[in-house]
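Hi team,

Filling in the usual template for the complex we talked about on Friday. All components are listed, including any nucleic acid strands or ligand strings, so the model treats them as one assembly.

SUBMITTER: L.P.
PURPOSE: interface mapping
COMPONENTS: two
RESIDUES: 562
SEQUENCES:
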Amino acid sequence: MLLFVGATLVPSVAFAEDAVTSGQFTANNVWMMLCAGLVFIMHLGFATLESGLTRAKNTTNILFKNTFIISIGILTYALLGFSLMYPGEFNGWLGWAGLGIGTDEAGLTVAYASGGYTYWTDFLFQAMFAATAATIVSGAVAERIKLSSFMIFATIFVALVYPIAGSWKWGGGWLDGLGFYDFAGSTLVHSLGGWGALAGALLLGPRLGKYVGKRMNPIPGSNLPMAAIGVFLLWLGWFGFNGGSVLSADPAATSFTLVTTCLAAAAGAVAAMAMSWMVAGKPDLSMSLNGILAGLVGITAGADTVTILAAVVIGLVAGVLVIGSVLFFDRIKIDDPVGAISVHLVCGIWGTLAVGLFSTNPEHTVFTQLMGVLAYGAFAFTAAMGIFGVLRVTMGIRVSEEEELEGLDLAEHGGHAYDFGGSKRGIEDEMGYAAGVTRPATSLAASES
Amino acid sequence: MKKVEAILKPFKLDDAMQALSQMGVKGMTVSEVKGFGRQKGHTELYRGAEYVVDFLPKVKIEVVCEDDLAEKVAVALTDSARTGRIGDGKIFVSPVDEAIRIRTGERGDAAVS
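RESULT (copied from the run log):
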């Protein structure tokens, strides 16, 4: 219990706006660039987690989707996203600062963002966040979505839906004015992606053979080591996701934020381990990994503003919630291969509301937090249903039954992720000669000539 | 010549291979296979839900040898691969018409000894 004695001593976040020296400016900027790099690593985490929890016949397709999302995400964020999300002075609902990115000298000095970072760092850090929302959707729709339709959805979601929604809070819009609080994106990033994931999973329907009559047939993932690597990379990336959301290298605030972040992740894991053990009779690895992510998503909204004890409680509740949620969505036959809806939507909502419950800042209330949750839910879910809905009636969003059974790797990409020695004829010829094997004149050779 | 095919528990492969080597068997082919017998498959758990695995992993050893040796091979495999529990596997012995050593063109018993 000694651990929790100091829990009430939340460091006061001191922004020394008037006293940022050039050395501090450099340190701040280096930290923020490092955080941008850490958030970038999360995309590798998502890619490995998703490919680990799905079947080997869809691996190329999943990695292709993830490769596309981060790439198109950065490009569209440069073209439209940054401008839509941070328009400066605007009406609070929709703003626009102009096409593309660019800055004058002032954007590269202490005058920009109180010396926390330069304009370019600002852009890069935010761009890394942007693609995350679409990546979350990727996991829930895996193994059955038509690639071309997903690429169109992801592009619109990351280029328009995410930054417009983001401007309402982080851009200084109407929800920010009402006192809604979301430190690093339990709602703005994770729930938003989660709503998209729910819309996609609903409109696509489950994978073939997942629910037959009243029976639920598990479809085991192909590679749990890959899934574990993914979750640990995501945890590492969260040091930047939350640590960078301090928006400077402020020693007290960054270090405190990393502690709450890690405690919630650990508590989420332990709670999920215990829950899965109790519910299923055996400890389940993939759901325990979901528990880590549940804790991380849960703490993200209030990582800088809740106590140590509250961080642990938020993580524990998230770990329990995620297991219940995974089982619930299976019960109502919404197929989510990686548990993205449970992790990002359900725990994102929980984390956002938890700010109202546990924040040390009395201005944060459950009511305003709930208002934010509902506003983002209405917007993101409607937008995602709209995009997927239009795609469904125009070009279709699901691969054919035959393609799904054969695997999306072969159907969409014409090849497999893992080559177990299929076509190496040329190489074997080379190696045969190199190893000094004399080839007898066979009847086969004779018949060929 | 006879072909002895044995379907075994995978962890018994080393014991079986050593038993055969000791009695003078010069070569064998091993493959990873899947199947079930009277015991059927078994259930596994994934994300809190049970599912049935119909085909269990097994190894298959194939040995082609002179007629006289076949019975001894079968006995050696039976002894070395038995655990006494369900799923120990089966052995099939069948006649082989011809064998050819590709490198030399030798045929019959000369090709398998």
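MY TAKE: The mean pLDDT of chain B is 94. Chain B is about 25% helix and 35% strand.

Thanks, L.
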